[in-house]
Specification:
The protein has 405 residues and is mainly α. The chain has a single domain (3-185, 210-394), classed as Growth Hormone, Chain: A, CATH 1.20.1250. It contains 16 helices and no strands. The protein is globular and about 55 Å long.
Amino acid sequence: MTAWKRNLIFIWLAQFVSIIGFTFAMPFAPYYIQELGIEDSAELKIWVALFAAATPLALALVSPIWGAAADRFGRRLMLLRANIGAAMVLALMGGVRSVEALIALRLLQGALTGTFTAAQTMVAVQTPDSRSGAALGSLSAAVFSGAMVGAFLGGWFASVYGYRAAYFMSATLLLAAFLLVFFGTKELPLEEETPEDHNGKKHPEGWSRFRVALPILILITMIAAVRHFDLPMLPLLVQKIHGKEDVAFWAGLLFAVSGVAGLLAGFIFGRMADRIHPSRIGKFTAIGAGILMIPQGLAQSLTVLFPVRFGMMFFSGGLEPVIQIWLAKVTPQKNRGFIFGWASTARSIGWVIAPLLSGVIAAGYGVRIIYFVGAGLFIILIPLISWSSRHMSTGGKKTPPTAGS
């Protein structure tokens, strides 16, 4: 087996286990916050929004630093750092006594972790360009399948043993992911790259490499914000429909069903992105996700919520991996740590905006309105994807009209 394939297998397994760890407890944060003494409905929504925004806020600030460190000191080292940092912080979360301490640890989590970005960077650098779509798509599938398993098991575990025990189990799983990377992978030397790409154009140097990727980075921010707009409030929607009895189990099962949809989307759309331009796939998936947001806001039973959530997550699950594949295809290998670090910042900015905006809206107008606003946001992505595609094809310059145009 070639070295890059072995690395991909162990990184896939490590990412699968680490996402199980994160989703073992994180989706049930609204219930944990209630256990910490926050009962007022409007106040709860604000604390849930702060919980969701704290980690990506810190991640947005430190990701470029970790990305540059990956290019200088190695991508494997950054992946090890992210997993062991997450294990320590999650263990501490299980012992907090106040919601303020929980939010502080969420900030620390963002500063120390970022397992998905570190894994993406290592895979993007070490995988041949002709196979990058399938490799990054499969990594996205690891995220969704890990979320599926983690949410289902975590919902059951939290119902039986409590939310604190769920955080300690999360930390154990992140430690297992660290060991998989430590014993199963190795840093591979980069291939020698010519100063020109396949079209004879010179690779960008310095900050020009950032400007080349800027349209995609803007798009990543918007996609992250739209995809995570309703996510912090989803457990509260389940509680509104079903009530408090066994709510962690049903919320976990819904997240697991969503994970199945994302798993399929990662494999299917990731492979398609090696043959079809990512912008075309992105517009198609944005339309599908936007349409299926609406019935979630109207759902009066879990039997309605489950299938429409599955469909929406299938379409939205195709957005981020194809954009990451697009970014990898326009970025030279030696700069991918730097650019993927900024991609993590772009994504994190979206993750900060989404819960804060949805939290304010939900506190003022209720949880259900989130899904109608979210539908409109998915549709807005379509012209933004078109703009990004045109900007990338012209290098940000206006081209004169040709005869017959």
